[in-house]
Every structure is written in C-alpha cells, then in structure tokens.
Amino acid sequence: MLISKPKAVVLLSGGLDSATTLYVARSQGFDIYAISFRYGQRHAYELECASRVARAAGVARHVILDVNLRAFGGSALTDSARVVPRLADLGADELTQPPTYVPNRNMLLLSVAAAYAEARGVCDIFYGAQQQDRYGYWDCTPDFLERINALLALNRRQPVTVHAPFVALRKADELKLGLELGVDYAHTWTCYRGGETPCRECPSCVERAAAFREADRNDPLA
Amino acid sequence: MLISKPKAVVLLSGGLDSATTLYVARSQGFDIYAISFRYGQRHAYELECASRVARAAGVARHVILDVNLRAFGGSALTDSARVVPRLADLGADELTQPPTYVPNRNMLLLSVAAAYAEARGVCDIFYGAQQQDRYGYWDCTPDFLERINALLALNRRQPVTVHAPFVALRKADELKLGLELGVDYAHTWTCYRGGETPCRECPSCVERAAAFREADRNDPLA
Description:
Two copies of one chain form a homodimer.
Chain A: E1 7-11, H1 16-27, E2 31-38, H2 45-57, E3 61-66, H3 92-96, H4 105-119, E4 124-126, H5 142-152, E5 161-163, H6 171-181, H7 203-214
Parallel strand pairs in A: 1-2, 1-4, 2-3, 4-5
C-alpha cells in the first residue's frame, strides 16, 4: 500500500542556504514542492542553479514564478545601475541596511509561498533565512519568523507554518549539515553580481568562503 | 512656498470599500499613490472602476500591477469553472469559509503594497478591510491588522503602517461617511460575478444593497 508523504513548500533561490534548507525538509520526510522567483534579480543565473538543485534532490514539483520587483527599484540587487559593493567597503550604517536589501522582498515571497501552499492543502513552508544574514536584513531574524507565523496562524481555513531551520545557526554549521545530507554545492549560486564566475568580494561571496573555510571543506565553485 | 504633502499608498480594488478608504486617506491630507491588482479575478471590470475612482479623486499616481493568482486556483473568484454562490445559499460552514475567499490574497497584496511604499519612502498604507467582511475572511479582521503591523514594524529601514479605517465600522456607516466625503459610488463595482450588470444576489451585491438601504440612500448602480 502506498502511503503518501506529507508535502512541504520550499523557497528555493538556488543559493547555499535554500538548497540546504530543501535537503533538511526532505530529510524530515516531506515531499517537496519547490518554488523559485524571477523577481528581477541581476543574478538570475541562480534560477538555473535552483533547477539543478531541485532535479538533484528529486523534488515532486518545481515552479518558477514571475514577480517583478525591479519595477519598484530601491535595491542594488534589482537595479543594474547600482553597484553591489565589496563587503570590505560597507560602512557601519550599511551593515545594518545593506544596499543589496530588496524592499520587503522576503515577506512578499513568503506570502506568495503561503498562497501556493494553502491552495494545494500544504501546511508547511521551509525558508532559508540564515543567522549570518541578520547583520543587515530585518526579514531574516527569529523575530520576523515569529511574527509572520503569528499572522499566518490566524488563517481559519488553513494555518500555514514557516520553518527556518538555520535562523539561529552559524553558516559553517549549516554547511556541515548540508554536506552530511548530500547537498552538492556545485549546483548552488551565491554571488550577488551578475558575472559568469563568483566575484569573491561581494558580501555574499565573502560569507560563503568564510563558511567553507571554517567548516574546513573546499567550495566546489572556488 | 510649496510644501509637499505626506504620501500614502491606497489599495484600490474599485469596490465600495477601497474607494471610500481612498477618500478617507485624502481627507487626512495625504497625497495618494493608488495601487490596483490584476490577479486573475473574474470581475476584472472592477479595474476600470478603480481607474475611474482614481481619476475622480485626483490621485497623484495610479498603478495596476499583475500578480497572477489564478495559477494557484482554490477560489471561485479566480476560477470561472466554479460558481459564485447566492448569499442565501451559503451554509453555516461556508459563511466562515466562503468559496469567494482567495488563498492568502490580502496578505500577499499588502506585502506588495508595503514593498512599493518602502521603495518610494512612503510610511502609510490604507486598506479597505470592512467589518462586515469578518463573517468569512480571516484577513479582514482587527487581529489580522494588528499582526501584520507587528510584522512590518520590525523593518529597521522603514517601518510601514497599514491603516484600515473600516475594520470595525458597519458598512452603512462607512457609506454615509463616503457620501459626505464626495465618493461617487457610480464609479465603483461590487459584484463578484463577471457579468455586465450587478447580479444582485451574490454575497457582495446583497451586502452593498443592504448598506444603501440602511443608510437610506439610493445606489447609483441599482
């Protein structure tokens, strides 16, 4: 007799954190509905990586949705006229408000994911917010997670819960767990700039390199 | 010397509640950035009405954004194969979970509005949630308003506040206020079905008629 597994929606950007999150959800026994967003990011190459990660993990479904945030502006991630800075060049102010922050992106994408989950009768969403991201992004914090769940819990028809397994975990520890779970990080993409190879100096590249170094592993992209 | 007025983003569906909300925001001295959504609703005629309301009110800007919720399904409002029921035919269960509910629509559209507001440096959003809607929609309640504001208040860069002036007001009282403020309800659209004239029997039409009757006014669409 076939017993169908519970399903979970996973936000899959194609980066290191979301790929690892997907493998965590899978290891917990969920069938995966992966969801990615073409939101106008200059590093749209990450979507190809998302597809590769999804295939490698054998997800049940992978959808890529269009949500054009470029029209709103306000971020170096969606506006190619702005410069994605080197981490080393960020001042104290920018560390708490980085130019790569996209206005309200994460709440928006989680709202879409919750709509998608609800329409399909799925109760669980996995989100790759990462402790290290807390330096600058209000929408990657434990407080944010708690309050968005308080909001979604009001849904009388179908409460949906957002899980963020790494919201309070160091990136190096997340990486070690991902390697144990079989994530192939050659399929992931981290660089914020739109180039063909990782720039190694944007905040995202620097954090990735530091995590691999601390975990004493080699980055397959390096 | 020109002193620029503060700005507010108003969610404008083209219905009675959002039109009245827009006039309330205007009466409070805000310049209005109206935002409407083509989300796959079968009653897309309401968007023409939204444009008419926006023009009549002399808003500073009106944008119509595409967010395709039809792809998700799960609602009689976005799926023309489903029937929009008569209010009289709704059972007790359906009153707390009407078939016209769209999965997580309001949180999603408010998230987009908050992204739009933040990108433009606007701190205030007006949302036409209405007390009467509470019978079936979890996302039109005072609790929902309180919790979404608790979430948005975490934004370190620019906290945005959602105002819903009618969340605890009877529809007839809202209507009287709107008439005092000069709303021309001939420009608004309420019917959930996709017909050329109001059906007068869907829940939305019945509630509108009841409000005009109670306010002792004539509905220009009737």
